[in-house]
Amino acid sequence: EWAPYPAARLALANTLEVSNLVEIVKAKMHTSASSIVSLTHFLTEGVLTEQYVLENIDALLDCIRTANVTIRWTILHSRMQETIPMMNHSGDQRRVFDKGTDPDRLVTLLLQTSQLEWKLKHEFERLLAAKEDRWQHCINETCDRLSELSEYFTGEKPLTRVERNEDLIKWFADTSAKVASLDYVNHVKAGRRIKRLIEALGHVEQFDQIDTSLQVKAFLSESRAYLTEMVRTVRVRPEVMGIIEAVSDLSYAWEIINDFMSILHTRVKRDPSCVILLRALFLKLASILDVPLTRIYQCKSSDVISVAEYYSGEIVDYV
Q1: 67-113, pLDDT tens digit by residue?
Q2: How far apart are alpha carbons 25 and 11 in whole angstroms?
Q3: Which Pfam families match (predicted)?
Q4: Fewer CB in a 10 Å sphere around the end CB: N or C, the chain?
Q5: In angstroms, rounded to a whole number, what is the distance separating the alpha carbons of residues 222 and 199?
């Protein structure tokens, strides 16, 4: 369709050169294979625990983002013309694509990506619901330990036999107050403040009066652990759900996905347990609702319900 326009033809010609297309296809297929390896690991039973998600949210988001980019590129190019008009009706491009891509691998990538997205959304909803309780628990536990350490260095507690140290009394009391004042309204600022507190607790451990006390060192270690948990908790934000929704969009494949139905049917016949993965795929396909409804929501039209019902019915019929 760009063939009649000289400027567009010239801009696209380099990309459509067979030698360049070969490299692009190789790169995409390499990404596809590595994504499947990562997805298989993440989907292994027992891996996606609450703690694992908190510690590896960036890696998980990067995995589904990379997988979806590969899926989109491969699915959309699967409808490539047999011959390219602007390349003198050459059919080499189509042959390079067909030879370099594997529809069965694409279906595997699509199913596993859908499953990881579904699991990640489910786990993240739980984390968001428990965020406030987790945050307050960590603050309370940390403040309790720091307050006890402040009292410990008064030398007045039974069985302590420690020399009174006004500097440490004040330092631990001040640090406890700083922890108590933390909030996660600004997650970037909160993360930096917590990391500075963790570093400060590490430095104070080098003091002679602290280094020789196993009990004090244990309290400091536990305090750092709770603060580290707070760093992870502060990254649990509603925006992450928005990122997952955006990168997992499959509305572009509403018609093209039919080209892969025979592979899906064969999968189910060969391995009925694949139905579990199909559930996640159909939920991913529900993103088709976002396209017609976005503008209707924005203009606050009363047609939202009727349009949503229509497209919901279409999805149900499709399934």
Answers
A1: 999 999 999 888 877 777 766 667 888 888 888 899 999 999 999 99
A2: 19
A3: Strumpellin (PF10266)
A4: N
A5: 14
CB atoms under 10 Å from CB of 67, counted, come to: 26
pLDDT of residue 86: 66
Q: Is 203 helix (H, G, I), strand (E, B) or coil?
A: helix
Hey, what are 217's tokens?
């060192």
**197 CB-contact burial (10 Å; exposed 0-12 / middle 13-18 / buried 19+):** buried
Residues 38, 8: Cα–Cα separation, whole Å: 38
Instruction: Give 203-269 as a DSSP string.
Output: HHTTSHHHHT-HHHHHHHHHHHHHHHHHHHHHT--HHHHHHHHHHT--GGGTTGGGGGHHHHHHHHH
Residues written for the chain: 319
**Phi (first) and psi of residue 90, to 5 degrees:** -75, 140
Tokens encoding 160: 């302590």
Phi then psi for 186, rounded to 5 degrees? Answer: -105, 100
| pLDDT reading at 129 higher than 90 | yes
